Amino acid sequence: MKRLIGRRSRRRLAAISSERKAERVTVGLAVFAAGSLGTLVIGELLRMARRRRESSETETPETLADAAGYATRDTLAVARRGIIATPHHEAVLFNILQGFLGAFAFARLSTWGIRTGWWPAGNVKLSGRHIHHFVPGIVLAFGSAVGALTTGNERVESALSIPFGVGMGLTMDEAALLLDLEDVYWTRQGVLSVQISLGMAAILGGSVLAMRMLQRGEERTEAAGIIPHVAPEA
Predict the structure, then answer these.
(1) What is the pLDDT along the chain (234 residues), one digit of tens a residue?
(2) Which distant-in-sequence residues (6+ apart) come within 8 Å of 81 by Cβ?
(3) What is the C-alpha separation between 94 and 220, in angstroms, rounded?
(4) How far does Cα 51 stand from its chain's mean position?
(5) What CA dihedral angle connects 36, 41, 45 and 46, to 10 degrees?
């Protein structure tokens, strides 16, 4: 009897340890996703500030606040023109990836927050049944896909690609549960097999597309005379 109790205790401790490792991996992935977006934005702000400093067409900002203001304005102009100049298929793919990545980060952080008690809201329940987030994810993905297929407006298609990506993210975040028909969300197989592969693909793919869009936006914005020209390095 003591031996049996000892085995159960060891298994329980091993399960708790596995869940904690899964939680750390989850939080790490979500932080990495948010950090990638922050790095991209900060990098572009620094590029715009350096352009102002190195260009001979404009005066160097006198204060850090002036430099930050010019860099923010230039970055917004670059992003706007980059989006306009981006081919339709690239814009749709970028919106899907960003929607997927945002949904993934939100779902993982909110679920972890509910488990640890700091998230302001709790699990969504209907008639006492826990509604997993793949349910609204499927509804979002199907609804936005049908809407995009039935419209001939490219702007509407681009807009609908965002909720489509969100729906994909919410659904794929619980792919392990759907495959195993068991709630393995916080086990290592429920995290590592799905989140690392799909999360990294979304992060890297979204970052590459964003950099292409910003580069194209810089070229258009410089040609329009909104941001100063910088001579290419020899």
Answers:
(1) 555 555 666 666 655 566 666 666 666 766 776 777 778 788 888 888 888 877 777 777 777 788 888 888 888 888 888 877 778 777 888 888 888 878 877 887 787 787 777 888 777 777 777 677 788 889 999 999 999 888 878 889 888 999 998 998 888 777 666 665 565 555 655 555 456 556 656 666 777 777 777 777 888 888 887 787 776 554
(2) 216, 217, 220, 221, 224
(3) 19
(4) 28
(5) 0
